Protein: DUF3329 domain-containing protein
Amino acid sequence: MATPPSEVPWLRPLWVRIGLVVFVGVWCLVEWLWWHDPLFQWLTIAALAYAIWSLIISFDRTPPKDGGAGD
Structure:
């Protein structure tokens, strides 16, 4: 089973999650404004929607149970 984003240590800081969403958003704009490839236009919209949902909206902000210690 896949690890939820809230359990990945390097995704805990808000600035990292926002940076990833901005990166995908810029990629989406490049596809729509310059490259005009319909397949990748819709793929990047889907990736942007997923990134916004999983990294910003539904991200579990509670601290991990193990105190953030690695394996």
Q: What stands out?
A: The CA atoms of residues 25 and 71 lie 33 Å apart. The helical segments are 14-35, 38-57.
